[in-house]
Amino acid sequence: MMDSQEKRIYASKAEVLERLQEIAHNEDSEIDKAEIAHLKTAFYFLLNQEREEAQKAYLESGGDPAQYVVTPDETEEAFKAEMNIVKERRQQAFLKQEAEKQDNLKRKQEIIERIKALTTTPEEAGQAYQEVKKLQDEWKEIKAVPAENASELWNNYKLSLELFYDLLKMNFEAREYDFKKNLEMKTALCEAAEKLGTEEDVVSAFHQLQELHSQFREIGPVSKDLREEVWNRFKQASTIVNKRHADHFDAIRHQEEENLAKKSALCDKVEMIHTDELKTSAEWEAKSKEIIDIQAEWKTIGFAPKAMNVKIFERFRTACDQFFSAKNEFFTSMKERFNENIAKKEALVKAAQELQDSTEWKKTADKLIELQKEWKTIGMVPRKIGDQLWGDFLAACNKFFEARNAATAGERNEQRENLQKKQGIVEQLKALVDSELDDLQEKVQQLTEEYNATGHVPFKDKDKLFREYHDTLDVLYKKLNKNRASRRLNAFKEGLKEVAKRGENAIDNERQRMQRRYNEMKEELATYETNLNFLTASSKKGNSLIDEMNKKVDKLRDELNLLREKIKTME
Q1: Closest CA to 62 of 423, 411, 331
Q2: Quick one: three-class SS letters along 498-558?
Q3: 154-160 long-range contacts, CB within 8 A, separation 24+
Q4: Distance (Å, rounded) from C-alpha 480 to C-alpha 321?
Q5: Separation between Cα atoms, residue 370 and residue 364, nearest integer Å
Q6: Is the confidence at residue 541, as pLDDT, over 60?
Q7: 284, 327 Cβ separation under 8 angstroms
Q8: Tens digits of residue pLDDT in 375-396
């Protein structure tokens, strides 16, 4: 039976090892099996906790999961050595106890035979009363016997005593006195058993009851008219204690099953996180926080059933390890892409700075425009570095174009005329917005060609005119796209008839092909949207770049909508 050590909470492996060493090397103390099991559970709980924290720290610091090796623990080796000593002591104690039980069995069998020999006649029984009392005292002093012999041995002993007392011819007072003393002792045991029914520690109460049962059996009989009453009282008290003991462990098993269900649900949550769907660092960090919260919740849940406790923990740890391994791969890959893009943009900055003082206006302008186009094709970089590189690049471009504008002041009159002409074209385009002309597309195409054929306008009016022109075109193109999309969808529906003629699976194949194209365009759209989130505009030219990307995004969305409608027609 465990003492207060059962309820002790150990803060470290060293504390557990110290207690185990006390038990292993104290030859005078008995080894409590329940406490040894408690120490083993506590030690490996703390050891596994340390290893999990070490692995977590290794992974969060950027370590490679495939290279991670569990560090041997010296304390674990010492713990195992002490456990071996305990096992040897327990084995020796077990063998010693078994030998003692066999010896006790032999001694008690001899007592039974001696009692039987004294109960052949009533006269001999009366003369042997004191000798039988001594044999009873000797019986009580002898401890446990093998469990397989205990019941038969006790029945034989009880039968021999009952035969002896039935044959015993002694004076009534002596016989009644003996029954009275036995009744007093058994009544005291009944009261003790009834008190155990309210004992707070039900496990301790159960073990104490076993000792009371042993004492009850060793006490001689009471008068026949009270035997059944006394036994029923003792048995009823025992039933209460035994039921509380059984209910206690049923509650533990029920709680462990609930803990297993809770832990299984947490495993499901982690396993349902699809890392292939996480595309941005923000999404990864959000899911990381979610898993850390789940891990914190895991620690608040108690043990699962013994058969499943290790398995459910391994399942949970595997799911968490797989997530953080995938996260490490993602950020490693992102860092490599960022470094590549930084190098490309640094090269463009250097090229622009080398051209910023050139006076070859046409040739250099064309080169800078090409550099600007190339800049747009490069993927994203970290915001802080990206802003700095963009500022340097833009400053070099602006320096050249401002110098060129100052040197070409004679062109301003022509540019003002071009401005008036382009403004007139924009007004004509605006007038087409609400028109329902059949040749709308041809009109728009004609005006855009005139606009593009018209030369440069004053620099200060350039961006405003550009926005007004393209905003108007956006409205017209949306109108044209809507009409065109409707025509394309109708044409597609007509074309399905031809597709169907090619065979039974032709439409299914066409739908699958379009679904693949739809998924590809959806990923492309997600990439543009991500780039837009990272791009910081610090000038008018920066805003122009964003405008261009927004147009591409809008176009992709239109194409996706059309594809979706086409797919629906085939369902």
Answers
A1: 331
A2: HHHHCCCCHHHHHHHHHHHHHHHHHHHHHHHHHHHHHCCCCCHHHHHHHHHHHHHHHHHHH
A3: 154/217, 156/112, 157/108, 157/111, 157/112, 157/115, 160/112, 160/115, 160/116, 160/119
A4: 53
A5: 10
A6: no
A7: yes
A8: 888 877 777 888 888 888 889 8
Q: What phi and psi, each to the nearest 5 degrees, are found at residue 99?
A: -65, -40
Which among 556, 532, 536, 547 is positioned nearest to 280, based on CA atoms? Answer: 532
Instruction: Give me Rg for the CA atoms of the chain.
Output: 47
Mean pLDDT of 231-242: 91
Residue 264: pLDDT band by 50, 70, 90 thresholds?
very high
As given in the structure block, the two tokens for residue 10 are 């150990």
SS (H, E, C) 54-121: HHHHHHHCCCCHHHCCCCCCHHHHHHHHHHHHHHHHHHHHHHHHHHHHHHHHHHHHHHHHHHHHCCCC
Per the CB < 8 A criterion, the answer to whether 264 and 312 are in contact is yes
Please compute, for residue 85, the number of CA atoms within 13 A of its CA located in the half-sphere on the CB side. Answer: 14
Closest to 167 (Cα-Cα) out of 137, 219, 132: 132
Q: Decide if 472 contacts 430 (C-beta within 8 A).
A: yes
The dihedral sign for the CA sequence 298, 302, 305, 309:
positive
Query: Residues 234, 193: contact at Cβ < 8 Å?
Result: yes
Residue 263's closest CA among 292, 224, 230, 303?
303
List, for residues 297-349, the tens digit of each pLDDT value: 999 988 888 888 888 899 889 989 988 888 888 778 777 787 888 888 888 88
Exposure string for 470-481, b = 16+ CB within 10 A, e = fewer: bebbeebbebeb
From the list 394, 405, 398, the residue with the least C-alpha distance to 361 is 405
Q: Which amino acid is at 22?
A: E
Cα–Cα distances (Å) from 122 to 166, 175, 385, 447, in that order, read 8, 14, 114, 140
Element (H, E) at 477: helix 459-501
Listed range (12-26, 113-127, 290-304, 455-469) with the worst mean pLDDT: 113-127
- Record the tokens describing residue 452, joined without a space: 């593009």
